[in-house]
């Protein structure tokens, strides 16, 4: 928003005259914003029962691409707000926006100071952590005794099969259990003739 110079005494008097709601007038001045835009209400000719239309008039020296209307005035233009905003309310909104920019800059600086979870950590794993990983990997790899078995694929397959069988027999608690006489038999339904 670009601030326009304050109006002269004559223009203030003219604006005050235009704001009077005289019965013969069709257009009334409702207020202005900090950028110098004026906001008007008007009646369409012959339609007394309809609500008043609302428009904004920009200053002559303003470029159309540079015109910004405050959110309070947009609400008033769209009839979602009954009364037009005062100058004090508009000034407080500008102060609030400046305060929000400062708070947003502080929050951005706070987040920039924290480590990102998307980046790799700067440290390499410690030797104790590396040795723990090696021990865990050796638990799941089959043991290899000689250089010959490492290089011959057939011997390696036989060795892995035998180690799997040995591990499954040792690890499975259900393999040792046998059926006793106290255990009930499974239910099998009888066929019915129709």
From TrEMBL:
Disordered: annotated segments: 122-194
Domain of life of the native organism: Eukaryota
Annotated Polar residues bias: 169-178
InterPro entries assigned: ComplexI_NDUFA12 (IPR052618), NDUFA12 (IPR007763)
GO cellular component terms, A-Z: mitochondrion; respiratory chain complex I
Pfam families: NDUFA12
Entry's Gene Ontology BP terms: mitochondrial respiratory chain complex I assembly
Matching PANTHER family: ADH DEHYDROGENASE [UBIQUINONE] 1 ALPHA SUBCOMPLEX ASSEMBLY FACTOR 2, NADH DEHYDROGENASE [UBIQUINONE] 1 ALPHA SUBCOMPLEX ASSEMBLY FACTOR 2
Family: Belongs to the complex I NDUFA12 subunit family.
Name recorded for this polypeptide: Uncharacterized protein
Organism this protein belongs to: Microthyrium microscopicum
